[in-house]
Amino acid sequence: MSCNGCRVLRKGGKDDCILRPCLSWITSSESQANATLFLAKFYGRTGLLNLISAGPRHLRPGTLFFSFLQT
Predict the structure, then answer these.
(1) For a designed S-S bond to 32, which of 4, 14, 17, 18 qualifies (C-beta 3.0 to 4.6 A apart)?
(2) CB pairs under 8 A, 24+ apart, for 18-23?
(3) Which PROSITE patterns would you find in this protein's record (predicted)?
(4) Contact of 6 with 12, CB cutoff 8 Å
(5) Model pTM score
(6) What is the pLDDT of residues 48-64, one digit of tens each?
(7) Domain residue spans in the chain?
């Protein structure tokens, strides 16, 4: 099943999706979609996914995504 981030980006979701753990701290599914869209418009879809996957694994579950939204 795809996460809200994958649905918004129209990307086929997988069990090892890198977006799902990044969005887990956002409670509302609509807010998850809005945050993903905002960052995808700023970085581009591929750029956002590459940026998340290039980040250290210990920062991926939420911290990295959270820091993108605060800057």
Answers:
(1) 4
(2) 18/49, 18/52, 18/53, 18/60, 19/49, 19/52, 21/60, 21/61, 21/62, 22/52, 22/60, 22/61, 22/62, 22/64, 22/65, 23/62, 23/65
(3) LOB
(4) yes
(5) 0.72
(6) 888 888 877 777 667 77
(7) 4-70
